Amino acid sequence: MTLGSDNVCGMSHPQFVIRSARDDDGAAVAAVYAPYVRNTPVSFEVEPPSATVMTERIISTLGTHPWLVAKRGGEVVGFGTCQRL
What we know:
Elements lengths: L1 E2 L3 E2 L2 E2 L3 E5 L5 H14 L11 H12 L4 E6 L2 E7 L4
Antiparallel strand pairs: 1-4, 2-3, 4-5, 5-6
């Protein structure tokens, strides 16, 4: 799925591609998430998970729930997931 527009309000914006995560997205997702763990109160984690841990989370989640990544210009810039509590 591609979201966005090349021209919104006279400004150029690259499009986002939303797709299901794959196990090879672990490092990129970990890199996106790490600053939020380190520098904000939005995560209950104390240390950012490693690429290996994030890959394991992606693999285990995809068996039962969605995990999506947002890519812009070929780079993972965001992600979203849900899990049963």
